[in-house]
Design goal:
About 20% of the residues lie in helices and about 30% in strands. By secondary structure, it is an alpha+beta fold. It has 6 domains: about 80 residues, ligand-binding face of the semaphorins, domain 2, CATH 3.30.1680.10; about 120 residues, ntegrin, alpha v. Chain A, domain 3 (Immunoglobulin-like), CATH 2.60.40; about 230 residues, von Willebrand factor, type A domain (Rossmann fold, 3-Layer(aba) Sandwich); about 35 residues, Laminin; about 30 residues, Laminin (Ribbon); about 90 residues, Hormone receptor fold. The strands form 14 sheets. It has a 6-stranded mixed beta sheet with strand order 4-6-22-21-16-19, with no helix packed on it. It has a 6-stranded mixed beta sheet with strand order 10-9-8-11-14-15, with helices on both faces. A hairpin with a 2-residue loop joins β12 and β13. The relative contact order is 0.08. One of its GO terms (cellular component) is synapse.
């Protein structure tokens, strides 16, 4: 049952495994797009009669076994070139200050890949966190009435934060913006002292002047809102997309979002009659968002997209009450953090520093949208030898300034996307402005395609292009040489050419007659093929041995086994190797037999065994086994102390007397032995080899002279 199961599994694996044959490729280009294992034989004489053009496409090993020279197999491979490879910056603390554009944290920066279908290209990226890297921080604050005391503390934030951040970088800039809500109704009532409501105001673009920050923020007044959730998403969108107004540089970009309330998102604007979805564009005039009454709030997914596109890392500084809400939001926005804001924002500096350290210690790679049919996998090599794969392979954590990590990235194409037009993708670490550009070129045709001859005489009066050893037929033509039109109908005259003899089946019932030529049908198992002028041959109806076609030592051609070297027989099950027949004296079968199919056939009846070296009836046999028979049967003799170790090579059988000993008429050679011990007592036994089993029959009592009986007791017989 297990053998049968093995055969079924093997057959199933073959059918599923040889994708090259199953693809039915009619050209070299089609063949190499099936997978990296597939090759195309360009030898014009390669195909047997009846085999279709698609039989040129097969696995490489199979093509060579079928007789295609390796030099005639088209099997292009992909490759890669590094186009820009600026080394990562190794600036040490205290060294000369560098411009942001002169700092490199990821290497290489640009590559070109040639992709063969199914063959991955591996690239290695290095990332090193630079010393003294510049930081831009934009503080976006909720100025609804409940944040009144918080505003008082933030008014002195500029110089204090500048001082604290100088411990991290010598190049720090800070900006300020505020938001409340869409301006549909006036939220200020009674004697409340508040400014008119607004959606978002860019109060101060990024600057290195901390005193200017304090001065401008000190002039701000709180406003109001009619419901608890605020319009912060409108403000975040404008901060992300209005880069020129905000003053973002290509450095680390931090957005601190400070509030004591929740948020509105896409769909909430409909409550105020706003139905147009947010367009994700900049709409600032005089530093005010002017389209809040026209466009709905952005969705979370839209915000994630714009924050990522503009390399902005977000820090949510929110009160304890709204921690759960913003922690959920953080899980949806990569490279973001949440900190607990005290009731009056007095802890905001520590919150910002802690969040920055957390964000900057983790690098996460993301890639742009992949072309159809292209896949990518990541493997990260992080600190302390930690290796991550799968989604975790995109990131490394706990990276300190000066640490270097690397990423192995596999990019694979399946087929030939978009007819082989070049594509490009980008890979970048989230929250960083640097990126790696990768140009993708697809190998869709073979080199031999370039030497194709259009309207070649090889293709029946020029009805096709002769390329890569075969005809690629013009539209409407079929046949190996494009010799027929598709609309031609089979006739009796043409059918005659497809019969081996009158009265026999067309194409031996194993194919179709196309243009008077047999095209053999395919089997369910793509490894099995019909061939021959009349499809009378196949490669699967040969003799088997050990449930293997041609014994696993040959190939089946037209129902006859063609054996590998050193094998013969109808099923290639007879080995010509004589090494298994060599005796210890280096003679074949000890010179007393013939080696047939790797096994000795002894010609001398006295000799037996795998190499004809065992001779139970030859002189010296009795003496050779005497000591072991003594110790096993009587517990005496030279080997009585080592009996168990040295004498377990035969089966011992005791008999009552000599008449009970086996006789030479047995079917196998047998030797009668009579030996004397140290007490002049005789013991009798026979030695025989029955196939591979050695047997000793021994008379259980000794025959001793009278003196021995008078003066000594015979040894005690030990039953074995």
């Amino acid at each position: 049952m297990s053998t049968l199961f093995g055969i079924i599994c093997c057959s199933s694996a073959q059918q599923e495994g040889n994708e090259c044959i199953k693809a039915n490729a009619l050209s070299c280009g089609e063949c190499i797009q099936v997978g990296a294992k597939c090759g195309w034989c360009t030898d014009t004489e390669f195909l047997k009669q009846g085999e279709p053009t698609s039989a040129r496409c097969d696995e490489l090993e199979s093509l060579m076994k079928r007789g295609c020279d390796a030099a005639r197999i088209e099997n292009p491979h992909g490759g890669q070139r590094i186009l820009k490879n600026k080394a990562v910056t190794n600036r040490k603390k205290g060294a000369e200050k560098l411009r942001p554009e002169d700092i490199t944290q990821i290497q290489p920066q640009k590559l070109s890949l040639n992709l063969r279908s199914g063959e991955p290209q591996n690239i290695k990226l290095r990332f090193k966190r630079a010393e003294d890297y510049p930081i831009d921080l934009y503080y976006l604050m909720d100025l609804s009435y409940s944040m009144k005391d918080d505003l008082e503390n933030v008014k002195n934030l500029g110089t204090s934060l500048m001082k604290e951040m100088s411990k991290i970088t010598s190049d720090f800039r800070i900006g300020f913006g505020s938001f409340v809500e869409k301006t549909l109704l006036n939220p200020c009532t009674g004697d409340q002292n508040c400014t008119s409501p607004f959606s978002y105001k860019n109060v101060l673009k990024l600057t290195s002047n901390g005193h200017q920050f304090n001065s401008l923020v000190g002039k701000q007044q709180i406003s109001g809102n009619l419901d608890s959730p605020e319009g912060g998403f409108d403000a975040i969108m404008q901060v992300a997309v209005c880069g020129e107004h905000i003053g973002w540089r290509n450095v680390t970009r931090l957005l601190v979002f400070s509030t004591d309330a929740g948020f509105h998102f896409a769909g909430d604007g409909k409550l105020g009659g706003i139905v147009l979805p947010n367009d994700g564009r900049c709409h600032l005039e005089n530093n005010m968002y002017t389209m809040s009454h026209y466009y709905d709030y952005p969705s979370i997914a839209h915000l994630v997209q714009k924050l990522s596109e503009n390399n902005i890392q977000t820090i949510f500084a929110v009160t304890e009450e709204f921690q759960p809400v913003y922690k959920e939001l953080k899980n949806l926005i990569p490279k973001s953090a949440v900190g607990t804001l005290s009731a009056n924002s007095s802890n905001v500096i520590n919150l910002i520093v802690d969040a920055y350290n957390s964000l900057s210690s983790e690098v996460i790679l993301e890639n742009s949208k992949l072309p159809e049919g292209v896949t990518i996998t990541y493997q990260s090599h992080c600190k302390n030898g930690v290796v991550n794969e799968g989604e975790s392979g995109r990131k490394c954590s706990n990276i300190s300034i000066g640490d270097e990590v690397s990423f192995n990235i596999n990019i694979t194409a399946q087929g030939c996307p978009k007819q082989g037009k070049p594509e490009s993708i980008k890979i970048k670490p989230l929250g960083f402005t640097e990126e790696v550009e990768i140009l993708l070129n697809f190998i869709c045709e073979c080199d031999c395609h370039k030497q194709g001859i259009k309207n070649s005489d090889m293709c029946h009066n020029g009805n096709g292009t002769f390329e890569c050893g075969a005809c690629r037929c013009n539209k409407g033509r079929v046949g190996r040489q494009c010799e027929c039109r598709k609309d031609e109908v089979s006739t009796e005259d043409l059918d005659k050419n497809c019969r081996k003899d009158n009265g026999t089946d067309i194409c031996s019932n194993n194919g179709e007659c196309v243009c008077g030529t047999c095209e053999c049908k395919k089997r369910d198992n793509p490894e099995e093929r019909y061939s021959g002028k009349f499809c009378e041959c196949d490669n699967f109806n040969c003799d088997r041995s050990n449930n293997k076609l041609c014994g696993g030592h040959g190939r089946c051609e037209c129902r006859v086994c063609i054996c590998d070297a050193n094998y013969t027989g109808s099923a290639c099950d007879c080995s010509l190797d004589t090494s298994t027949c060599l005796a210890s004296n280096k003679q074949i079968c000890n010179g007393r037999g013939n080696c047939e199919c790797g096994t000795c056939r002894c010609t001398d009846p006295k000799f037996q065994g795998p190499t004809c070296e065992i001779c139970p009836t030859c002189p010296g046999v009795c003496t050779e086994h005497k000591s072991c028979v003594q110790c096993r049967a009587f517990g005496t003799g030279e080997k009585k102390d080592t009996c168990e170790r040295d004498c377990s090579y035969f089966n011992l059988i005791k008999v009552k007397d000599r008449d009970k000993l086996p006789q030479p008429v047995q079917a196998f050679p047998l030797m009668h032995c009579k030996e004397r011990d140290a007490n002049d007592c005789w013991f009798y036994y026979t030695y025989a080899v029955n196939n591979t089993e050695k047997e000793v029959h021994v008379v259980e009592t000794l025959e001793c002279p009278a003196a021995a009986h008078d003066h000594s007791r015979p040894p005690r017989v030990r039953q074995v």
